[in-house]
Amino acid sequence: MRLVGATLYALRIPFIEAFSHSATDRRVSESVVVRVRDEAGTVGYGEGAPRPYVTGETVETLLDHLARDLWPRVAERALPPVTDLARLAGFVPETPCDAGIVAPHAARAALELAALDCALRRVGRPMAALLPPRRQRVMYSGVVTAGSIERAVQHARRMRAVGMRHVKVKVGFDDDVARITAVREALGSEVSLRLDANGAWTLERAVEVLDAVTPLGIAAVEQPLPRGRVNDLARLRAETTVPVMVDESLVTEADADALIEAKAADLFNIRVSKCGGLARSLAIAARAAAAGIGVQVGSQVGETAILAAAGRHLAAALPDVEFVEGSFGTLLLAEDVAVESVRFGHRGEASLLTGPGLGIRVVEARLRRLAIDVRDLTTEG
Amino acid sequence: MKTTTIRQSFERQVEAFTASAEFQALETGHADYEAFLENVARAHLKSPQLVAFLYALAPPAAAPTLQANLLEELGLGADGERPHPALLAELIRAAGLGHRLQDIEARAADDIRRIVTDPLLYGTLRDVGLAALAEIVAFEFMLSRVAGRIARALAQHRGLPAAALEWFTHHSEVDVRHAEQGLADLAAYVVYYDMTEDEALAIVELALRDDVFARRYFGYRSPAGAAR
């Protein structure tokens, strides 16, 4: 079946509460949903969440890349049969990278997911047909956002109230040690606590903070240094006992190779949108496994049920996953786009999505209502 | 359990609500009154179901007031009382929005469906009940202080007659008592179910978040230029 139509929805969904970290302060979601349609009328949905400080993409560049570079190269082409994920993902072509963009991965992820969803729905099969799950439930982490220490403690108490077993706190501020200490106290000693600096520290500052908080029991520190400082990450690993996780430093498979070569990370944070879709996420996870590096399946703040569903399938399918993030659903978004709730429940637990395709039913009327820009890319007259 | 902290939290929310640009617009004749009325109806059309759920969980000290509250919602509390959903439907019709009523009821039903079917955030029915009770009491608290102002604004700027505004006037009169009793019920609930004050506060805060009244009555606002 040939793909004959695509619609791009640039969404702007208000958050119930602001979400802040050292790199940004976000009050609305910014993502692009791609709806593709084949000649039989089967539709599939994908999503990409462009982040200038991660892949270099913006909503505008993503829309342009999809409309100008990606869609014309898949329009009127037949989707491969549902046999293996890599072959289906290969349907999305390699495209050149514009200046200033690390990789056009959010665009690629959006189209890849839409193609996978469409192909699976056409034959009424779930994602498990391509990505067999290894576990029946996924356990998500809570996140304590930036803001005052009082606010951080309030969030930590909420996390504890809903029984979260893993919590991450955003750091990268002058009061980091006091902040981490207060959050640990609010969470209690049984909850696993991680830090995320979003690249805000220098090597010296990272060592200073980690030395001070190591006795509090820190499961990992994510992106302590800015992207590009691979050798400094390796030095930090040598100077701290806290496992170092890379996020913004890990966008492409080449990044993964460089980080492995430099022995710069204990953990990879793999996010479907950031890493260019499920196939590339799996490829990076395979490199991590071969190098003895742990994996976190991460998420984009404000992602809708579409990316959340993709992340859940990935988290359920990987052999070993240390931590999983995302699926906040309507805990963060004023409204989500699917009939099914993808939000995690008590303790951060969530069950698998077993319906056709990505396992969720997207409500197109909601996409239209929540979109600030809609572009139709139909090949038919 | 002391209710001072919860009262302060409610007061802060009421203050933020009445200070919001949307509330100011409501009082000065510049609001989207149709959207406001639809949101109010959607927020409260299913209150009897929620109060019934809370009555089932009520500790002995709070059961009589929750029972009275439930009967009031159902229009069974005293002779001549009408069910509150009927008052809301009348409000919608009087505003010329009768054609929208079916859709509003469907959205309210969908809200209840999501409450029932979404994965439960809390590990016990005790915690789920506290979250629901906190929201009911918070709205009683707010309405006891603001419903009269809203009714006056709707009469003045939307031309709604007194009969159509009964839901608001009823709540402004009744909820002064309800609100105080509600705070006492919250305290009784926490004591009866042996919760710590910190546990209870965390659940109350999570249930209300920062601006529960504005979110329910004015919808979600998208601050311009907020995302980077």
Explained architecture:
The complex is a heterodimer of chains A (381) and B (228). Chain A folds into two domains: 3-124 and 360-376, Enolase-like, domain 1; 129-351, Enolase-like C-terminal domain (TIM Barrel, Alpha-Beta Barrel), CATH 3.20.20. In chain A, 35% of the residues lie in helices and 20% in strands. Chain A has twelve helices and 16 strands. Chain A has helices spanning 59-74, 85-89, 105-122, 149-161, 176-187, 203-213, 230-239, 253-261, 272-275, 278-291, 305-317, 364-370; strands spanning 3-11, 14-21, 24-28, 31-38, 43-48, 137-139, 142-144, 166-170, 192-196, 220-222, 244-246, 267-270, 294-297, 323-324, 349-351, 371-376. In chain A, strands 7-8-9-10-11-12-13-14 form an eight-stranded parallel beta sheet. In chain A, β2 (14-21) and β3 form a beta hairpin. In chain A, α4 (149-161) runs parallel beside α5 (176-187) and α8 runs parallel beside α10 (278-291). Chain A is globular and about 60 Å long. Chain A starts with a strand and ends in a 5-residue tail after the last strand. With 228 residues, chain B is mainly α. Chain B has a single domain, classed as Heme Oxygenase, Chain A. Chain B is 73% helix and 0% strand. Chain B is globular and about 50 Å long. The A-B interface holds A 12, 14, 16-18, 24-30, 154, 157-158, 160-163, 329-331, 334-335, 341, 343-347, 349-351 and B 114, 117-123, 127, 198-199, 201-203, 205-206, 209-210, 215, 220-223, 226-228.
